[in-house]
Design brief:
Strand content: 15-25%
Number of strands: 8
Largest sheet: 8 strands, parallel, barrel
Distance between the termini: 14 Å
Shape: globular
Length: 246
């Protein structure tokens, strides 16, 4: 592989790493975006930051020249999710997720609402992603506590197929399931994988974890990394270390 190919490959990976701004501190989130935005294109705004600051959190990231994956995991009756999706689209985000467990109609209504609201506001519609099963869950918890009889792997693939049937662009799922999901749903169906931990980082509360390299090798379209970067003494150094590992 020549130097040009190596540079293109590295650049390709850079655009596929999402940093999770899982903090209630908007000032800290803003600082992280400023430090990392030359390396990272997309930042995840989730329940913690959004609950603390509302749409201002999204606007802050966008004003700094980055893109936003709005990670609120909508799960409600179809009409409520459709209206929440419209509100999210108006913020100008690039990705949005909702729970596949909400059912086919709920996801279809979200797709219709997203496309319509984007058209009304002359915006590019965000990628809609279905959440399969949280990466903090184990097979034992899924069986004994939630009461689902199948393995996580089989459930994730089944949920991905349902998400695709509804018209979603992809799913949020562990990279452990990425290869099977893409086999069933096609190479262009997105798999956004959380639960990513570099070799030098702890597992925290995640169960099904992989390194960035392992996740991409298994077929993840994007990976989401939070605490190993955001809680590092030097977040910029941490992301550069991750990039070198790829």
């Amino acid at each position: 592989m020549g130097r040009k190919d190596m540079r293109e490959k590295k650049s390709n990976y850079k655009g596929r790493i999402i940093v999770a701004l899982d903090t209630p501190d908007l000032g800290f989130a803003k600082k992280l975006v400023r430090i990392l935005k030359d390396e990272i294109k997309i930042f995840k705004v989730g329940s913690e930051l959004m609950t603390a600051h509302g749409p201002r959190a999204v606007r802050t990231v966008l004003e700094l020249g980055a893109e936003v994956f709005l990670d609120l995991k909508f799960h409600d009756i179809p009409n409520t999710v459709a209206q929440a999706t419209r509100a999210a689209v108006r913020l100008g985000i690039c990705m949005l997720n909702l729970h596949v467990a909400g059912g086919l109609q709920m996801m279809q209504e979200a797709c219709i609402a997203s496309a319509d609201e984007a058209r009304r506001n002359n915006l590019k519609p965000p990628k809609l992603l279905g959440v399969t099963l949280l990466t903090s869950l184990s097979d034992e918890e899924v069986h004994e506590e939630i009461g689902l009889p199948k393995s996580i792997n089989r459930i994730a693939v089944q949920y991905a197929q349902l998400a695709q049937k509804a018209g979603l662009d992809g799913v949020v799922s562990s990279a452990l399931e990425a290869r099977k999901i893409k086999t069933q749903c096609g190479p262009n169906f997105l798999v956004v994988s959380p639960g990513i931990r570099p070799e030098w980082a702890g597992r925290d509360d995640q169960r099904r974890v992989l390194s960035p390299r392992e996740a991409f090798e298994l077929g993840a379209s994007y990976i989401v990394i939070g605490r190993p970067i955001t809680e590092a003494d030097d977040p910029g150094k941490a992301i550069r270390q991750i990039s070198r590992s790829l």
